[in-house]
Amino acid sequence: MPLTTETTVRLRRTPLVLLVVFLALFLLGVALDEPLRVLEQARSICLECIGIG
Amino acid sequence: METLRKWIQVLWFFLTNGFWGFPVSGTLYQGPLKVLCSPGLNCYSCPAATTFCPIGSLQQLLMGVRLSLQAGQIYVGTYVLGCMGLLGTLCGRFICGWACPFGLLQEWLHRIPSPKYSVPRMLRWGKYLVLLLMVVVLPLVVVDSFGMGKPWFCKFLCPAGTLEAGVPMLLLSPDLRPAAGLLYLHKLIVLAAVLLWSVVSSRPFCRTLCPLGAFYGLFNRFSLIQLKFNVDACTKCGACRRVCPVDIRVEQTPNSAECIRCLRCCTEACPTGALTLDIAGFGVRMTPGAPASSDEPMQQGSRS
What we know:
The structure holds 2 protein chains of 2 kinds.
Chain A: H1 2-31, H2 34-42
Chain B: H1 2-16, H2 22-25, H3 54-63, H4 65-70, H5 78-91, H6 94-98, H7 101-110, H8 126-141, H9 152-156, H10 159-172, H11 182-200, H12 204-208, H13 211-217, E1 225-229, H14 239-243, H15 264-269, E2 275-279, E3 282-284
Helix pairs in contact in B: 3-8, 7-11, 8-13, 10-11
């Protein structure tokens, strides 16, 4: 069934493309020192976020 | 399998909330693990939290994007979005079913004996609106005179944050209690409404309001974890639909964006093995008689 084969190939290729794209975003974030900013935020209480203040 | 899933959910709860020294320290976990992304919705202001919440962090970065760019720092959320996208591509909403503490809580509440009601299907679109508006657009666009936005989802809606952080922090820190006003009351009402709704409906927050579930749902058709439906083996008995906690027509859309991959349809319901789990192209036998190979003709969900 050619249709089934085409569908299978497309669906198997898509996650690989997505993995590459998001891995690139992840690495770009690391290169820009974003994890340090995230760590700084996560170590402090966001009062506004939890409904206080 | 359902027992195993429950234990794995509990394990993830403790992995993402592993700091139990907070009653002594009186503050949050401050260690380096907080650079890791929590797969499920888990507030990082929770005193026990050991990871960051992807939705909370994304909002924080987006609402402060103007100030960081003015300071020459390009913090636009690429790291957080990368983490979320990698998790989504690998697992899709499998995370919702197996690793989200707030999902586990809703499941436990739903076991309380009471009349049960379905969730209207059109409400599922609510979570995409929440993701788009409250997590992305409003924090970016509505800013104060300094150029700083607000964490709209965390501030006005997130019941997980109220339960895991708002209530415990007020109990831990008497100094904060005078600051709890109308906003705190509003959040308590939202939390109470979601918890009560969870008693009478199955996972209502996940299905109608959760922006993280909405994000992961976009990946269900493409993630490495998939459900496969063998149309030839199906007897149309409807057992899969009856056990589904999120009311999916499994035989029509096995990879629906609503599916939380609890796998009850595969492991408890389907008597003929028409539904199988596919992990990165490898078929996994879930019931006796289910096809183990992914080479057999299968029909996959075509739309969410």
